[in-house]
Design brief:
Layout (H helix, E strand, L loop, with lengths): L3 E5 L14 E4 L16 H11 L4 E9 L2 E9 H17 L7 E5 L4 H12 L3 E5 L5 H11 L3 E3 L23 E6 L9 E5 H17 L9 E4 L6 H12 L3 E4 L7 H8 L8 H6 L32 E6 L14 E8 L5 E2 L3 H7 E2 L2 E10 L5 E6 L3 E3 L5 E3 H8 L5 E7 L7 E7 L1 H10 L6 H6 L1 H17 L8 E6 L19 H23 L13 E2 L5 E5 L7 E5 L1 E3 L7 E4 L17 H6 L6 H10 L2 H11 L3 E4 H9 L2 H20 L1 H6 L5 H14 L4 H9 L12 H15 L30 H16 L11 E3 L3 H4 L3 H7 L4 E5 L5 H18 L4 E5 L5 E2 L9 E4 L2 E2 L5 E3 L1 E6 L13 E6 L1 H6 L5 E5 L5 E12 L2 E8 L3 E4 L3 E6 L2 E9 L7 E4 L4 E5 L6 H5 L7 E3 L3 H6 L5 E4 L4 E8 L3 E8 L5 E4 ...
Parallel strand pairs: 3-11, 5-6, 5-7, 10-11, 21-22, 29-30, 30-31, 31-52, 36-37, 45-46, 52-53, 53-54, 54-55
Antiparallel strand pairs: 1-2, 2-12, 3-4, 8-9, 9-14, 12-13, 13-16, 15-16, 16-17, 18-19, 20-21, 23-26, 24-25, 26-27, 27-28, 32-51, 33-41, 34-35, 36-40, 37-43, 38-39, 38-42, 39-40, 42-43, 44-50, 45-49, 47-48, 47-51, 48-49
Length: 1227
């Protein structure tokens, strides 16, 4: 091979590894790789040195627009660009981005793009290009994944750095220069880290190559920039031109007018990718940046990417499963590359880096074939391989290259999957060729109509079949059906990457409608029933040309035409031939529905005599042609036709289409499944199946199936695919074919094959149900005593003051204790956890601890507390007469009363002598805070867990405070012994009524006087969140205290918000400190975890079994949570997502799929209080049902929370609605 030299011998395969071919390098590097260019250590040096050599050369140009039309190019010189770059660089540093930071560039090719890139290069900042065609989802992923600190979108900030002079950092060759994200042909984009050394080594190599072929670049050269700068190909080419001081002109953004840009600019060098060359009808050869380059004027290299550049070694590795052998006489295999131009790895994805980098070799995934002259031809793509239902491997790109040789088509995409035995294709036909064919065949239609013409589709399919025969393709590689799209595949519909590669998952998603339509047709073609008593030698007799229309569900997308024909037999038994075809464009829609019996009755039947006369008039030739036609159709006895159409076959077609749609959803969501932890792989797959099913309108099909006692599609949540497959099997068993092997789906098993390998996962009904219970047990623990639900109770400081409370809760059946970190502090939490674990051990009842992070919840600020006073008052009649005395609990500090006692107040008293002398019947005298003498009579002495206490009674109202002296009154006199301690302070509040105005202020803590001071014009409350004041606007609804109070924003300022109260209780609603604030219509953005959450998470890591994530909204929040959990190595910590916002509800499937990347036990809490406020009470019934349904599909346990049995807790008697509520929660 004249263009290559061998540097390593090939090796036969061993130890399960495939064979590898010899390693080659360019003949121009036979004496070693090109030497580094002196003084060139980083990408900044490329630009800096060129400015020093060529300050007045034209560098960057764009076409000016006059009256909306593109005119000539206007230019910036190298020195002018340098001056702007220094100002921009100073602005970046002024924004806080330092060396090693990450800066995004979001937009199409333009001079500002290069200026921004060079500003990053100057200061050692990682440049992260953002494709302007990727769409918001991928852009958000890249910004979050790369942790971009600043992004260039506009130029208005450039001049801020005009007068700043900053020292530039010293950079090394090994420093990262840019992180370029792949365009996402499949899955999420991957960040490719490219070092300074990679780029400058490639510059040196290409420069040496051009020198060897006498095509050296000069400063007079001109380059047209139109390929995305966000891709390495154009980036490296422009760096090379900058190094030589050459000129770069930018296109004005329309590929259709690219030729016009070329005419105006007159570039001396034009780089392209194959798709672009197709667009301008040129026959130039392909090139591939950094690896291979076609040599000038060597036409033998047409159709190849040429030999390697002089910087790399290249070898092929065999791919046995595809039949490619790197050691054969025609070496074929996966292309592997080695050299300093390679990237440094995938950003934050060491696992992916290790997959593609083995012993210094980069495995590209492309399949190449060495040509005799040493150039390389790309013939296939390893990852674009799939299997058909019989196990045949299909190399999609290889077939597309072959079918692409048909001159009548411009572009083709081929689809198949492991559940079908055939291929279908979407074709962009060549407009001129198709119109010429139409003219020759007397068809006068425009191009769009021609693409819908069945004859045109038949013609194109015939041409594809011809080339398949000519290239001797195998039978399973033949395309069986085509759809013609007059609109070329493009980036606007997200069907191509910016480098014009096909995005296969997106193509499938976009064209799924047509894929399913042709699949239904092909099902009909291959579905034949062979009846034992069918006499094929008898001629077919036409009953009627009438066409019967059977409306199908929208999943099939069209009408099925049933045409009735009959066949005469010696035994006088009539048969009906039934075949289906899709509704053509000229068919009218059918209005309403008629039963099949009604339609059959409308068909005129012929008498037996008519049949015999027609039989005698048919010749043998005609008879034989009919016999051949018979074999292509489905035959059914007439008396069985009604049952056949009603019960099995019609439903089978629909269910198969649904099944195909569900299976295809795996491919659309392959990126989620690839990153899913093995613990949740089956569950994530079922969730995707569920979502795919519920995006279809299957109401009518569900009703039809239910009418015959089969599957209800709406409730096939836990095991979607297996349930659909079981129903298909049952319908198959109902078909009137005695020869069919009948099976009964006791445990239908299906299998999932991921793209990266065949990871077989059991998706059977029983296996999926086990997964649901397994995930619940992993989070909550195993159920005890044959219970079918866990019980969670939220506790706070009261659990410390009443030591028996936690034990009584566990006895009553609670097995999860919840602590809300929005209240109390770690000292209280620690004591609660200690008491819970102690009670659990003593009672031998399991108990797990869930701690909710406070999250970024808006709350009212603190109010100054009132005096430490407690009021004791007896119950009185309306006239003021005492009905029963007030009952008070007296005990030492920490000794709480039994929960069964209903008391009016609790007093903790300090004094050992006091309790030694105290007895039943004693009278305690004291002076209350008003100076009035009052008394308490001891009525009971009760022993409790931590000692004993007393119940005292009073017939008069009294007010006590900390420090009040209690004296025992006996016949011998009064003795001052006990002192009241730890009386809680009174919590103040604002009482609000409808029509009142409330002012929310940033001011610090308000005093009691300021709350009701009319000088302020309205009651005032504080909120310490600046986001509230920055986000609301007049007219926004606002809710307080979990929706107990509603208002509307009347006005805002920097420090105040004025709210008009629109909903409150008739007597006025109380609004106190630390109450929730909700703004459901605001687009306020919160951080995933607050600084308090991170501190609390450290406590939770050492003390709790589960953590509740409050106010989670989107995938980014979930990513932050998982990062913090992983950072603390908390693989066993359960993660509970609290769904309490509309954003969380709408993003729930994505949140679950993101959380399933972690092995941690996972759960969901329906926080109905905040959720109802955020989404509306009228939506709650539907929302909670949908959450339950989605979580059921994901096999994720759900916590049914907020006000469960609240009436029972407060009054001892549950409300009737609470009983139903609990029953729903126990599901």
């Amino acid at each position: 091979m004249k263009h290559l030299v061998e540097v390593e011998k090939g090796q036969e395969g061993s130890d399960g590894r495939p064979s590898v071919g010899p390693a080659y390098r360019s003949v121009f590097a036979k004496d070693g790789f090109p030497r580094p260019i002196p003084g060139l250590n980083c990408c900044w040096d490329v630009f800096r040195m060129s400015v020093e050599r060529n300050p007045k050369n034209r560098m960057l140009g764009r076409r000016e627009f006059v009256d909306g039309k593109a005119r000539k190019y206007v230019w910036l010189t190298y020195q002018e660009v340098y001056d702007i770059v220094m100002k921009v660089g100073a602005s970046i540093l002024h924004c806080g981005v330092k060396q090693g930071g990450r800066c995004g560039i979001y937009g199409a090719n333009c001079p500002e793009w290069v200026i921004s890139m060079e500003a990053c290069n100057a200061h050692g900042i990682y440049c992260v290009p953002l494709y302007d065609t990727l769409g918001a989802g991928a852009i958000e992923f890249i910004i979050c994944h790369a942790e971009i600190q600043i992004t260039f979108v506009e130029e208005k900030k450039i001049m801020e750095g005009e007068n700043q002079q900053l020292d530039l950092p010293v950079q090394k060759k090994t420093d990262i220069c840019t992180i370029m994200y792949t365009s996402g042909t499949t899955g999420d984009p991957k960040g490719v880290m490219i070092s300074n050394e990679s780029i400058i080594t490639l510059i040196a190599g290409v420069d040496w190559l051009l020198h060897c072929v006498k095509q050296q670049l000069h400063d007079s050269d001109v380059y047209l920039s139109y390929l995305p700068l966000a891709h390495s190909f154009d980036r490296v080419i422009e760096e090379l031109f900058i190094f030589h001081g050459a000129s770069i002109g930018f296109w004005h953004g329309d590929v259709k007018l690219l030729v016009e840009d070329i005419e105006v600019l007159k570039p001396t060098v034009f780089c392209a990718v194959p798709r672009v060359l197709d667009r301008i009808y040129s026959g130039l050869t392909e090139t591939c940046a950094g690896t291979f380059v076609s040599l000038p004027n060597d036409f033998a290299m047409v159709g190849t990417v040429g030999p390697p550049v002089p910087n790399v070694d290249v070898r092929l590795e065999s791919v046995p499963e595809m039949g490619y052998d790197a050691l054969s006489s025609m070496p074929r295999g996966e292309i592997c590359i080695r050299g300093k131009t390679l990237f440094s790895g995938y950003y934050k994805r060491e696992d992916l880096t290790n997959e593609v980098m083995v012993d210094g070799w980069f495995y590209t995934g492309d399949i190449g074939e060495w040509q005799p002259d040493g150039s390389l031809k790309i013939i296939d793509r390893k990852k674009n391989i799939f299997k058909l239902s019989q196990g045949e491997y299909i190399a999609a790109e290889n077939l597309e290259n072959i079918y692409g040789l048909v001159p009548d088509i411009d572009f083709i995409w081929i689809y198949g999957n492991s559940f079908e035995s055939f291929l279908v294709a979407i074709v962009n036909p060549n407009k001129q060729s198709l119109e010429n064919w139409a003219g020759e065949n007397g068809i006068s239609e425009d191009f769009t109509a021609l693409c819908e013409n069945p004859k045109a589709k038949e013609y194109i399919l015939g041409e594809l079949t011809k080339i398949a025969n000519a290239k001797k393709l195998k039978g399973f590689e033949f395309v069986k059906a085509v759809h013609l799209d007059p609109v070329p595949f493009d980036m606007g519909r997200d069907l191509l990457t910016p480098t014009y590669k096909k995005k296969r998952p997106q193509l499938l998603k976009y064209y799924q409608h047509y894929v399913y339509r042709y699949t239904v047709v092909l099902y009909e073609a291959i579905c034949k029933v062979h009846l034992a008593d069918l006499t094929s030698s008898k001629p077919i007799v036409q009953f009627s040309p009438s066409t019967l229309r059977v409306p199908l569900n929208s999943v099939v997308s069209g009408h099925c035409h049933i045409q009735i024909q009959g066949i005469s037999k010696e035994n006088q038994r009539e048969y009906v031939k039934v075949f289906a075809k899709l509704r053509e464009n000229d068919d009218s829609e059918s209005n309403g529905r008629k039963t099949f019996e009604d339609m059959l009755d409308a068909v005129p039947h012929k008498s037996e005599c008519d049949l015999r006369s027609e039989k005698s008039s048919l010749g043998s030739t005609e008879s034989s042609s009919h016999v051949e036609e018979v074999s292509n159709y489905l035959f059914v006895p007439r008396q069985e036709l009604s049952q056949y159409l009603f019960d099995p076959e019609v439903y089978l077609h629909k269910l198969r289409a649904v099944n195909l749609h569900v299976l295809a959803s795996e491919q659309w969501n392959a990126s989620h499944l690839k990153t899913c932890h093995r613990t949740y792989l089956a569950s994530a797959t079922n969730l995707i199946h569920y979502l795919a099913l519920h995006c279809l309108d299957v109401d009518q099909l569900t009703e039809d199936l239910g009418s015959v006692g089969l599957l209800n599609l709406k409730y096939a949540n836990t095991n979607v695919l297996a349930s659909i497959t079981a129903s298909i099997q049952l319908l198959e068993n109902l078909k009137p074919d005695s020869s069919y092997k009948r099976t009964w789906p006791m445990d239908m098993r299906n299998y999932l094959t991921l793209q990266e390998g065949e990871k077989v996962t059991d998706l059977g009904i029983s296996a999926m149900r086990k997964r649901a219970s397994m995930h619940a047990a992993a989070l909550f623990g195993h159920l005890q005593e044959k219970k079918n639900a866990h019980i969670m109770v939220t506790v706070g400081r009261e659990a410390i003051t009443n030591e028996m409370l936690l034990g009584d809760l566990l006895k009553a059946g609670a097995n999860i204790i919840r602590i809300n970190c929005a209240h109390d502090d770690p000292s209280v939490w620690s004591e609660i956890i200690r008491l819970a674990k102690h009670s659990s051990q003593m009672l031998e009842k399991p108990c797990r601890i869930l701690m909710d992070l406070a999250g970024p919840k808006l709350r009212t600020g603190s109010l100054k507390t009132g005096p430490d006073v407690v009021k004791i008052a007896p119950k009185r009649t309306a006239q003021g007469n005492v009905i029963s005395p007030a009952q008070v609990w007296l005990s030492r500090t920490g000794c709480s009363h039994p929960p069964h006692l209903s008391l009016d107040a609790t007093l903790f008293v300090d004094g050992d002598r006091f309790f030694k002398e105290l007895d039943v019947g004693d009278v305690l005298k004291f002076i209350d805070v008003r100076g009035k003498w009052r008394s308490l009579t001891i009525s009971k002495k009760i022993s409790v867990f931590s000692g004993c206490g007393y119940v005292a009674e009073s017939l008069k109202t009294a007010y006590l405070e900390s420090g009040t002296k209690l004296c025992i009154q006996r016949k011998r006199g009064k003795v001052s012994i006990g002192e009241v301690v730890n009386v809680p302070a009174i919590q103040h509040f604002i009482r609000l009524r409808v029509g009142d105005l409330l002012t929310i202020t940033r001011d610090p803590r308000l005093s009691l006087e300021e709350i009701d001071d009319t000088a302020y014009g309205a009651p005032r409350i504080t909120c310490d969140s600046g986001r509230l004041f920055d986000s609301v606007k007049p007219g926004d609804p606002i809710a307080f205290d979990d929706g107990k109070i509603w208002g509307v924003v009347k006005g805002t300022s920097i420090n105040e918000i004025v709210v008009s109260i629109t909903q409150a209780s008739p007597q006025g609603s109380k609004l106190g400190a630390e109450k929730s604030i909700n703004i459901p219509k605001s687009d306020m953005h919160f951080e995933g975890l607050t600084s308090k959450d991170l501190v609390d998470l450290d406590f939770i890591a050492n003390n709790a079994d589960m953590v509740g994530i409050s106010f989670i909204r989107n995938v980014r929040d979930m990513v932050i949570v998982l990062q913090e959990v992983e950072k603390r190595n908390l693989q066993g910590l359960g993660i509970v997502m609290k769904i309490e916002t509309c954003g969380a509800f709408e993003n729930l499937p994505l949140l679950l799929l993101q959380a399933m990347q972690s092995p941690n036990p996972l759960g969901v809490m329906i926080a109905r209080g905040d959720l109802a406020v955020e989404c509306g009470w009228d939506q709650m019934a539907s929302i909670q049902e949908q959450i339950l349904s989605i979580c059921s599909a994901a096999h994720v346990p759900v916590i049914w929370a907020t006000q469960v049995l609240e009436s029972l807790t407060k009054s001892g008697i549950p409300a009737r609605s609470e009983i139903t509520d609990v029953a729903s929660g126990m599901r």
